[in-house]
């Protein structure tokens, strides 16, 4: 699924009107109806009390007016508060007189703002994608008043005051919603940690925007969902043998961190690799052979850390990083790897920290290398980000500059591709915030990069999605708090199977 900018969303609205030959008030009616359906499916009239609908001057406010009318028709008690404005949108003007007389309407002016009882259900229809500048004056006062009320706020399309795809000044107020019900496609702002307090939980409801426009529009941001991945993971051929799926080499572990090697190795095997060899320092030999008997094990000459590469000739992909530490010898081995590898590389954890501490090594990164930093590791590779938007810009720039794929891990992990496209993952849950879950991702990435049938982009997309999906499957048994990284590999197979394309008849 594509992620649109605010400007593209306006174009999508216009294309929909044109393609369907409908008036904009009809689209507003549709949007407000799906919003109202969403709300009434979750909130009975008896639990709602008197719903307060706060309406701004534009089409977001127009949506609010329609929702107020529909809620009244469905037996809810409703009142409307209007933000005073010099000018209203045409569709707002169209719907204002259509509010039933039984719905109380008042202007909500600064200095005379009525109290909002704690727990009141408030529909925030002040501003949506048309916000042009940070809120000030009457609008800012109203938002501050609402945020102080401890109400149950549901925002239409966006929490008011939040730009759809750009940062706002720290001191400009934004509605703090429990739920944001957004139309057709999520907006970038909903995916970023810095907006979590305003957005609450977000939900997408369909309004039927022009399929033609959505197919044609040139987006540079995407959501990684099952639809995006359809057809990217071919079924395993009947006459497959272990060579078909590649031989991966994993360089992992140091004294006290062999668990990282074990987790990555198990995950690589569950990711479908044909053969796996793991090189560990001597201290890890018995651990690896016992914990992961399916993998072959090479022993580094050093006892406690990795110091050199084996002959790379047999391998289709090499992964390095989980648990390796940052010894000088290990840095030398990494440098050797960057200089000599002729196959896809996956770099994580201390391999990234070594790169960050030795920036000239970045110029040695082979094209299409896959890096999987968390935000701190990414910062070591680049610079501290001013905010989440700036971090995405740095991510994009880095992927372009080094012609590599970078997964910035977190909720909605974001993959940047060498062409500057960004892909936000939709699977996973807070149970992944546990030690070792990144090592599992590394192993899975390595397996998919070793599979010669997969393009680099497809391997990375499949890996981040299946990793999150495995966590969702695991959490159904363990709960989120009880989820540990070792639970994940056993669900990778199912996650990949769900994505596998059946052979066409
Ligand atoms: N995408 C869809 O499927 C549909 C979306 N709809 C809704 O329409 C809004 C966008 O409406 P628009 O009129 O473009 O913008 P807003 O209502 O967000 O606000 C515009 C309004 O506010 C003024 N304004 C802008 N910034 C400020 C500010 N900082 N302070 C004061 N006033 C400001 C501006 O001048 C305008 O007057 C979208 O989010 C959906 O909710 C449609 O219903 C159709 C389907
Ligand atoms: K809103």
TrEMBL record:
Instruction: Tell me the function of this protein.
Output: Catalyzes the dehydration of the S-form of NAD(P)HX at the expense of ADP, which is converted to AMP. Together with NAD(P)HX epimerase, which catalyzes the epimerization of the S- and R-forms, the enzyme allows the repair of both epimers of NAD(P)HX, a damaged form of NAD(P)H that is a result of enzymatic or heat-dependent hydration. Catalyzes the epimerization of the S- and R-forms of NAD(P)HX, a damaged form of NAD(P)H that is a result of enzymatic or heat-dependent hydration. This is a prerequisite for the S-specific NAD(P)H-hydrate dehydratase to allow the repair of both epimers of NAD(P)HX.
Tell me the ranges covered by the YjeF N-terminal domain, including all copies.
Answer: 9-215
What keywords is this UniProt entry annotated with? ATP-binding, Isomerase, Lyase, Metal-binding, Multifunctional enzyme, NAD, NADP, Nucleotide-binding, Potassium
Q: What catalytic reaction does the record list?
A: (6R)-NADHX = (6S)-NADHX; (6S)-NADPHX + ADP = AMP + phosphate + NADPH + H(+); (6S)-NADHX + ADP = AMP + phosphate + NADH + H(+); (6R)-NADPHX = (6S)-NADPHX
Tell me the cofactors it needs: Mg(2+); K(+)
Entry binding sites for K(+) = 60, 124, 160
Q: Please list the residues that bind AMP.
A: 409-413, 438
What PROSITE patterns does the database record attribute to this sequence?
Answer: YJEF_C_3, YJEF_N
Q: What InterPro entries does the annotation carry?
A: CARKD, Nnr, Ribokinase-like, YjeF_N_dom, YjeF_N_dom_sf
Cofactor binding notes: Binds 1 potassium ion per subunit.
Write out the similarity annotation: In the C-terminal section; belongs to the NnrD/CARKD family. Belongs to the NnrD/CARKD family.
- Does the keyword section mention Ion transport? no
Q: Name one GO molecular function term.
A: ATP binding
Protein name in UniProt: Bifunctional NAD(P)H-hydrate repair enzyme
Tell me the organism: Hymenobacter edaphi
Quote the EC number.
4.2.1.136, 5.1.99.6
Q: How does it assemble?
A: Homotetramer.
Q: Which PANTHER family does the protein's record reference?
A: ATP-DEPENDENT (S)-NAD(P)H-HYDRATE DEHYDRATASE, ATP-DEPENDENT (S)-NAD(P)H-HYDRATE DEHYDRATASE FAMILY MEMBER
Its organism's taxonomic lineage begins at: Bacteria, Pseudomonadati, Bacteroidota, Cytophagia, Cytophagales
Q: Which domain of life is it from?
A: Bacteria
Which terms does the UniProt entry file under GO BP? Answer: metabolite repair; nicotinamide nucleotide metabolic process
């Amino acid at each position: 699924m594509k992620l649109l900018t605010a400007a593209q969303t306006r174009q999508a609205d216009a294309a929909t009107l044109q393609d369907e030959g409908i008036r904009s008030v009809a689209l507003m009616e549709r949007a407000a109806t799906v919003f109202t359906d969403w709300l009434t499916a979750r909130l009975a009239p008896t639990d709602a009390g008197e719903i307060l609908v706060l309406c701004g001057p534009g089409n977001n406010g127009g949506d609010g007016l329609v929702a107020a009318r529909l809620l009244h028709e469905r037996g809810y008690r409703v009142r409307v508060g209007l933000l005073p404005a010099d000018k209203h949108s045409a569709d707002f003007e169209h719907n204002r007189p259509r509010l039933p007389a039984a719905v109380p309407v008042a202007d909500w002016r600064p200095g005379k703002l009525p109290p909002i009882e704690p727990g009141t259900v408030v529909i925030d229809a002040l501003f949506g994608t048309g916000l042009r500048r940070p809120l000030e004056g009457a609008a800012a006062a109203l938002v501050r008043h609402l945020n102080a009320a401890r109400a149950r706020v549901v925002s239409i399309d966006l929490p008011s005051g939040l730009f759809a795809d750009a940062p706002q000044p720290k001191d400009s107020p934004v509605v703090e919603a429990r739920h944001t019900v957004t139309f057709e496609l999520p907006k970038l702002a909903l995916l970023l940690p810095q907006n979590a307090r305003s957005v609450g939980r977000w939900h997408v409801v369909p309004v039927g925007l022009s399929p033609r426009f959505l197919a044609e529009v040139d987006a540079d941001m995407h959501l990684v969902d099952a639809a995006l991945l359809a057809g990217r993971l071919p079924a395993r051929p009947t006459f497959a043998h272990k060579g078909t799926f590649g031989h991966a080499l994993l360089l992992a572990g140091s004294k006290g961190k062999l668990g990282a090697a074990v987790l990555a190795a198990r995950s690589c095997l569950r990711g479908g690799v044909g053969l796996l060899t793991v090189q560990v320092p001597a201290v890890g030999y018995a651990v690896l052979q016992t914990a992961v008997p399916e993998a072959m094990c090479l022993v580094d000459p050093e006892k406690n850390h990795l110091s050199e590469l084996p002959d790379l000739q047999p391998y289709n992909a090499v992964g390095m990083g989980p648990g390796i530490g940052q010894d000088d010898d290990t840095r030398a081995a990494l440098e050797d790897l960057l200089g000599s590898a002729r196959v896809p590389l996956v770099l994580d954890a201390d391999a990234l920290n070594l790169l960050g501490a030795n920036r000239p090594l970045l110029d040695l990164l082979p094209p299409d290398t896959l890096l999987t930093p968390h935000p701190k590791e990414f910062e070591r590779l680049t610079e501290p980000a001013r905010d989440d938007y700036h971090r995405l810009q740095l991510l994009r720039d880095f992927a372009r500059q080094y012609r590599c794929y970078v997964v910035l891990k977190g909720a909605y992990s974001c993959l940047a591709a060498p062409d500057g496209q960004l892909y936000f993952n939709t699977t996973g849950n807070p149970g992944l915030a546990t030690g070792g879950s990144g090592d599992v991702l590394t192993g899975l990435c390595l397996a998919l990069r070793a599979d010669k049938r997969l393009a680099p982009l497809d391997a990375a997309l499949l890996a981040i999605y299946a990793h999150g999906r495995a966590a969702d499957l695991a959490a159904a048994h363990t709960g989120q708090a009880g989820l540990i990284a070792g639970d994940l590999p056993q669900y990778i197979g199912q996650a990949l199977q769900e994505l596998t394309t059946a052979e066409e008849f």
